[in-house]
Each structure stands twice: as C-alpha cells, then as structure tokens.
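Q: What does the assembled structure look like for these inputs?
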Amino acid sequence: MLTSSAELLEWAQKKGYAVGAFNFHNLEILYAIIESAEAEKAPVILQITPTYLEKIGATAAAAMAREAAAAARVPVALHLDHSDSFKWVIWALAHDFTSVMIDASKLPLAENIALSRQVAEAAHATGATAEAELGHIGGVEDSVDRGSAGTSLADPDEAARLVRESGIDALAPALGTAHGLYTSQPKIDFERLDKIRALVPVPLVLHGGSGIPDNMIREAIARGISKVNIGTELKVAWAGAMKEALAAGTTEPWQAAMKAREAVREVVKQKITLCGCGGKG
Ligand SMILES: [Zn+2]
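A:
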C-alpha cells in the first residue's frame, strides 16, 4: 500500500531501526525492490531523482511506481529524491508521490530554510513528507556531479535552525558520505551525528549508503539514522546481471530482465537486513 514516509520514519526512529530507501531506474529494479520488501515483510521507500524521471519518462515512471506501490503487500512510500527545484516538487505531489526531498544545500542557510519551508508547506497540503539537506553531500549521482564530499559537513546548530524554521519532516545532514562508488575509504563523522541527533527532533537520513561498510551503517543507525539511501549498488547489480545475460546470447528482454531482477533483489534483501526493517512492514 502507498504510505507517507513520515509514518514509516517516525516508527523507525521510535524503534531504533532504519527504513531502506532504494532508487529505481527502470521496471525491473522497481519490482526487485518491492518483491524483496514483500519477502522480508519490510516497509520500504521507493525513490527516483528528477534526472531519472527525465531520462525514462516522468509520467510513465510515476504511474508504474504508484501502481506497483499501491499493489504491494507492505507499506511503500514514493519519494522524489534530490530535487533542487520547487517545480519538480509540485510535479511529484501532483503525481501522487507521498514524499519529496528538496536539496537546497548549495544555497546560503537563509535561502535553504526559505525554500525548504515552501516545500514543507506544499508537501503537507497533500499529506506528503518533506526532506531537506544541510551541508553538502558530494559525489556523482545518476551521472550528475554533485561535487566533492566532506567539503562542507552539516553544522549541528544550523541543522536545528533549519528544521525548526522550515517545518520539514526529515533531515539529510552531510556527515562525510558521498554519492556513487567510493574511490577512497568512506567516512562518517559520528560525533557530528550525535550532536545533530541531540538537537534535531525529526528523523535523520543517510545519503550515499552504497559501498559503506556494514558496521558503519549499523553504527549510524544505532546513533539515530532512520533512513538509508541506496542507489548505486542496485545499478551495479543490475549491470552485472545484464552483462551476463547478454553475453550468454539472449535477445529476449524479459530473460535479461529476470536475471537483473534476481540480482537486485539480493542486494535489497541484504540492505533490509542491515537496516533492521525486516518484519516491520
Ligand atoms: Zn543523495
């Protein structure tokens, strides 16, 4: 069933686990996420960036995600990931997304607060959830270069102010993680996370979850992360399985798609176990 992500995240925060938030890029990745969530009885957040909406066809992508989420036997939130424009937020809310992220982290704090507040008001008008970002989470996402990670980590007092003054429901503070594949050892500034957790009442989100060692993810959740974003590892699993299927000589799209679906399902299952959200749906 289609659910707001605030509901899933508040429950996770109370109980001390995290909800896996998985990016989808096509139909087989979308179904792999839902099938794994159903098998593990886990609540799940399906998310897509404006880049992918543009690339694969926004209206059709929204419709397939909405239909798949509504038919799922577990709670599923449909989330717009990394929108840097109010336009995409409104588009998503008009297409039944139950959750939206505004990434105004490049703007000065006062402007980030103003735009995040606008997004929170729009989201709340439709019963949806609003997520904002503070500090800069770099790396490459969907082939979009978001700059280098660790250059501007979230300031705890600014985090408290952003949440208080904007009315957002979830916050993604930059803690040193990055989007895409890590080229050096990933880092999470746990002390900073503790300070933010102590000052901010809403659920906290970890971006760039692909490729972070399991023990670091577990520690981040123990210290108060309630949503873990996974995108890149799903793409890598998809690409590996597609390559193999095509190399074996198939020209049937469904045969390659089934292999890819199986590979992605396996990654989603591991991440659900890591997040501790299995059995919570
Ligand atoms: Zn992100």
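The chain has one domain: 5-275.
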